[in-house]
Description:
Layout: H1 2-32, H2 50-81, H3 87-119
Amino acid sequence: MKNFIQKASGAAVMAMALAGKAMASSSSASFFDNPQGGSSTPKAAATGTLGANIAAILNYGLGLLGLVAVGFLIYSGVLMVTAGGNEEQTTKAKKIIMYAVGGIIIILLSYTIVTFVTSAL
Length: 121
């Protein structure tokens, strides 16, 4: 049973890493493109305003935190399903679910605040 949990958590981590890689490759290509042509190194003035860059960095970080919170939800679900009547393991899984959902709520509120503040910049 422990071997199954290790394999399942390893597969979940690998899936999250691949999803993060896909998100990073799709968003970073447009961020590092040089709109003025010529050399491939981006110029600081060509990447956008300071507010837009800060918003992009904060949104990327919040997305990464959301991915981690979803990973904890998956882990706690596997933990609860494999508890097999073990009360200690079930309460541990419930606590992880509670904190992960609270984290997702905080991340969504942070995203709302960042979007509101950066729209004024």
